[in-house]
Amino acid sequence: MKFTFTTEINQPFNKVAALFLDKNNLKEWQKELLNYECLSGTPNEAGAVTKLDYKSVTIIETIIANNAPNEIKGYYEHKAGKKTIMVHNTVHRFRELSENKTLFELAMEDVQFVGFLPKLLSKLMGRMFEKYHQTEVDQFKVFAERQQ
What we know:
The longest helix is centred in the C-terminal third of the chain and has 21 residues, at 126-146. The protein is an alpha+beta fold. The model has no long low-confidence stretch (mean pLDDT 91). 29% of the residues lie in helices and 48% in strands.
């Protein structure tokens, strides 16, 4: 499965990319995030592994490639307890549209649900999955546009 979520942000390209890459900003726009912890490597650099604890799931993020400020690629493993329930590759892209307008794109590829229940829920609640990720992109837009 593939999904793409986009938004236009009324801020300069370099500022938007910098806001996104700063892990200290995560809680500002990912409202469900409780904590994050770098497990290995340098944050946002290829090979870095970060544990992201959300209210209902833990996600292990591994950075595959960092071509900042244009894009950053990652592999994400969603866990409920110790059990993996979903994995996917993600590309976060930024493109300058004008001096003060930036396109932010979240492309999710190879989304796989692991186990019977996660697969069933993905079929029943697929639109909610898409809505959740578009909301996350929109929350980043709101956060970025509030910054001076």
